[in-house]
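Field reference: sequence -> structure
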Amino acid sequence: MPAIIGIVGVSGSGKTTLIERIIPLLRERGLRIGTLKHDAHGFDVDKPGKDTWRHREAGAEVVVISGPEKIACIRRVAEAPSPEALIAFLMPDMDLVLVEGFKRFGFPKLEVVRAANSQSPVTSPDGLSGLVTDLPLSLPDVPTYGLDDLEAIAHRIVELAGMARHG
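Structure field:
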C-alpha cells in the first residue's frame, strides 16, 4: 500500500497548484506518484452521445475506455469508497499518493491557507502535519511553510510518507 498524504484547504486555496508544483520534486527523488482528487459535488467524465456514455446509459455497471497511453474506468457505486480503498484498488504500485480533499480521513495532511480566500486553517491543529500559507500563521507543533518553499514542503512530504509507511 502506498503512503498517503493529504493536501487540504478551502476551495480556491491553491491545493491543485501546490500538487502540480510538488510532483516534479517528488519524482526527482525517485518516487512513483499517484494523485486522488475528491469532488464533493459529483462529476461526470462521459460526454453525452459518446460511446462510453452510451454504454453507461444502456445500463453497463462498469465502462472502461483504453487507448495507447491511458485508460479510464467509470463504475457505478452505491456509496463513495474510502480513499484508502480507492488507492489499494487503483494505485497499489505507487510509492506515494497525494490526496486532494478528503479532509475527514486520518492520513497525514498539509493544509493550504491563502490570504486571498481564508484567514485560518479549517483542520484542527491535532490533525495537521504541516501548514502552507502566505499569512503569518503559526500553530504549536505544526511546521509552517511559505507557498514557494517547495523543497522544504517536498522534504516534509517524504518525511511524512516514511512515517505513514512505517508508523
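Note: The chain has four helices and eight strands.
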